[in-house]
Write a structure and sequence with these properties.
This protein has 10 helices and 2 strands. The protein has about 190 residues and is an all-alpha fold. The protein is globular and about 55 Å long.
Length: about 190
C-alpha cells in the first residue's frame, strides 16, 4: 500500500492521516490493535504504549487462545497474535521509525520529550525478534538497497537482478555485523 510508505515519515499529521486510511481497509491483522496504533501516534502516550506493546509476548498462552478477546491485552501488555505478526509488526516498525526520526522543534521541554521518545523506540526495537529487525534495517538503508519486493524482472535481466540481490544481502550482513559489536544488539548476533 502507498500508505505504508507514508507512515514511515516523520511528519505526525501526515502519518495520522495515513494510519486512518490504513484502518479503513479493516484488515483483520491490524484492526484489533487500532487503539494501540493510535496511541503510538500521540507524543503524550507513545512511551507508555511502547512499554505495553511488547513484541516478545506470544499469543500461545493457553488462556489467551481460549478467549477471543478483541483487545489483545494480557496482563497490561498488548499481545500480538502469531497470525497477525506478518502484517502488523512491519507497520509498527514503520510507525516507530517515523517517530524516531522526527525532530523536536521549540524549547528544551520539547527536545527532552524527543529524547525520551527515541529512548522508548530503541527499547522497543531491542525487544524485537531478529527477523523483524530486518524491517528496521531496510528502512534505515532503503536509499542504498534495492527494494526486494520490486523483484518482477524479465528473463533477460534475471542475472542482473540476482547480482543486485546478492549485493543487497551482503550490505545487510555487513550492517548487522557492525551493529553486533554494540552491547545493545545481542539479538542481532543470533540473526
Amino acid at each position: 500500500l502507498f500508505y505504508q510508505e507514508i507512515i514511515a515519515k516523520s511528519d505526525a499529521m501526515t502519518v495520522k492521516l495515513a494510519v486512518e486510511c490504513i484502518l479503513t481497509y479493516k484488515s483483520p491483522s491490524i484492526l484489533p490493535y487500532r487503539d494501540s496504533i493510535k496511541r503510538l501516534l500521540d507524543d503524550k502516550t507513545i512511551r507508555n504504549e511502547l512499554l505495553n506493546f511488547d513484541p516478545t509476548l506470544s499469543s500461545k498462552l493457553e488462556d489467551y487462545n481460549n478467549s477471543m478477546n478483541d483487545s489483545h491485552h494480557e496482563g497490561g501488555h498488548v499481545v500480538v497474535r502469531d497470525e497477525h505478526r506478518d502484517e502488523l509488526i512491519p507497520m509498527i516498525v514503520r510507525l516507530v521509525y517515523g517517530r524516531f526520526t522526527s525532530k523536536a522543534r521549540g524549547n528544551k521541554a520539547a527536545r527532552d520529550l524527543n529524547i525520551a521518545r527515541r529512548a522508548a523506540v530503541l527499547s522497543f526495537v531491542s525487544k524485537m525478534e531478529p527477523k523483524e529487525i530486518r524491517h528496521l534495517i531496510h528502512l534505515m538503508l532503503r536509499g542504498l538497497l534495492p527494494l526486494h519486493h520490486l523483484s518482477k524482472t524479465s528473463s533477460s535481466s534475471t542475472k542482473q537482478h540476482h547480482q543486485q540481490q546478492k549485493q543487497s544481502v551482503a550490505v545487510e550482513v555487513e550492517v548487522v555485523e557492525m551493529l553486533s559489536y554494540d552491547s545493545y544488539s545481542t539479538k542481532l548476533q543470533s540473526w
